[in-house]
From TrEMBL:
UniProt enzyme class: isomerase
Entry keyword set: Isomerase, Signal
GO molecular function, one term: chorismate mutase activity
Keyword NAD annotated: no
Pathway noted in the entry: Metabolic intermediate biosynthesis; prephenate biosynthesis; prephenate from chorismate: step 1/1
Protein name: chorismate mutase
Residue ranges annotated for the Chorismate mutase domain, each copy included: 7-100
E.C. designation(s): 5.4.99.5
Nucleotide-binding listed as a keyword: no
UniProt xrefs under NCBIfam families: CM_mono2
Example of a GO biological process term: salicylic acid biosynthetic process
Pfam families xref list: CM_2 (PF01817)
Length: 183
């Protein structure tokens, strides 16, 4: 089907928006936090209708132990990095709980396919851990507790919501994920 002129412009705008990074020095980090809260949809789909609980303290410990060890190697403050990742984990669980509630109320919205948590989903989160740690390193000088940092964080977050057209659940999760960024 041929697209009308307006539709073509819309298609180009959407393609551009999808490839854009949230604004400012915290843009890349915020973009990675967005990716992580989006992967939570896959985690939720992997667990929904199974006995696998949303909260998995053993897996969280593995993630946080890895963060602590690699922060030290990178010259990052391990406790600061762990605090940031605890927020990523809370954000992820917020999305999982929200989607499970939604799918329980609206079974017709349950995804058709259940991804495999161990082989398909956690490896994506592990890759994001590496990328987020590198960004934490790159943004160390911006992330001191200051009004400047809070302004950059707000701008990056607001632009991410628009660029990625986040719904309310993912917007709330992103706010949680970024809650400790200036510290
Ligand atoms: C993502 C998962 O669900 C929860 C969130 C985690 C995370 O964000 O890294 C880790 C463990 C779980 O408490 C998972 O089980 O892998």
């Amino acid at each position: 089907m041929a697209l009308s002129g307006d539709m073509k412009i819309l298609a180009v705008a959407l393609t551009l928006a999808a490839s854009l990074t949230p604004v400012g020095p915290l843009g890349e980090l915020t973009g990675l936090a967005v990716e992580r809260v989006r992967v939570a949809d896959l985690v939720a789909a992997a667990k929904f209708g199974t006995t696998q609980p949303i909260d998995d303290p053993a897996r969280e410990q593995v993630v946080l132990d890895g963060v602590r060890a690699r922060s030290a190697e990178l010259g990052l403050d391990p406790e600061n990095a762990v605090r940031f990742f605890r927020a990523q984990i809370e954000a992820n669980k917020l999305v999982q709980r929200g989607l499970h509630a939604r799918w329980t109320a609206h079974p017709e919205e349950v995804p058709d396919r259940r991804p495999d948590l161990g082989t398909e989903v956690r490896p994506v989160l592990d890759r994001l851990t590496t990328d987020i740690l590198a960004e934490l390193k790159d943004t160390t000088s911006v992330r001191h507790p200051s009004l400047r940092c809070e302004i950059h964080a707000t701008l990056a977050e607001r632009s991410a919501v628009v660029l990625h057209r986040l719904d309310r659940l993912h917007e709330d999760a992103l706010a949680e994920a970024m809650s400790t960024v200036c510290s």
